[in-house]
């Protein structure tokens, strides 16, 4: 295993930890398996089926931004579009999400 593999594995575990924490908080009920995959693509993150894909570049992001990204994708398991209800759910999962959202918008990548 080379250094990059280890770094990616560690990043994936960090993300899984955040997801686990949100799910176990009991603030939202999300059923079924949900997994995270770190990948390289043209977006920051997306949900497809039961997999949350996170861009490998996000490993440089601060913790509060990662928490926002996970809360956002977790909310998409309940609401597909960015409606007021969607953002309400994001806020229930992670109350300080707006700070992460703003920071993410500022980042150029
Ligand atoms: Zn979204």
CATH secondary-structure class: Alpha Beta
Structure annotation, total helices: 4
Look at the helices and sheets and give the structural class: alpha+beta
Number-wise, the strands total 3
Bound molecule types: zinc ion
Structure, described:
The protein is an alpha+beta fold. Helix content is 51%, strand content 13%. Strand 2 and strand 3 form a beta hairpin. Helix 1 packs across helix 2. The longest helix has 22 residues. The radius of gyration is 13 Å and the shape is globular. The model has no long low-confidence stretch (mean pLDDT 94). It binds zinc ion.
Helix and strand topology:
Blueprint (H helix, E strand, L loop, with lengths): L2 H22 L10 E5 L5 E4 L2 E5 L7 H14 L7 H10 L3 H10 L3
Task: Give the gist of this structure.
With 109 residues, the protein is an alpha+beta fold. It has helices at residues 3-24, 63-76, 84-93, 97-106, and strands spanning 35-39, 45-48, 51-55. Helix 1 crosses helix 2 (63-76), helix 2 (63-76) crosses helix 3 (84-93) and helix 2 crosses helix 4 (97-106).
Features:
Zincin-like; alpha+beta; binds zinc ion; 109 residues; three-stranded mixed β-sheet
């Amino acid at each position: 295993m080379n250094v990059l593999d280890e770094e990616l594995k560690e990043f994936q575990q960090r993300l899984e930890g955040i997801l686990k924490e949100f799910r176990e908080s009991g603030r939202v009920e999300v059923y079924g398996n949900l997994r995270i995959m770190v990948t390289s693509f043209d977006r920051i993150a997306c949900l497809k089926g039961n997999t949350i894909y996170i861009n490998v570049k996000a490993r440089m992001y601060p913790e509060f931004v990662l928490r926002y990204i996970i809360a956002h994708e977790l909310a998409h398991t309940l609401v597909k579009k960015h409606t007021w209800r969607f953002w309400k759910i994001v806020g229930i999962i992670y109350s300080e999400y707006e700070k992460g959202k703003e920071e993410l918008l500022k980042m150029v990548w």
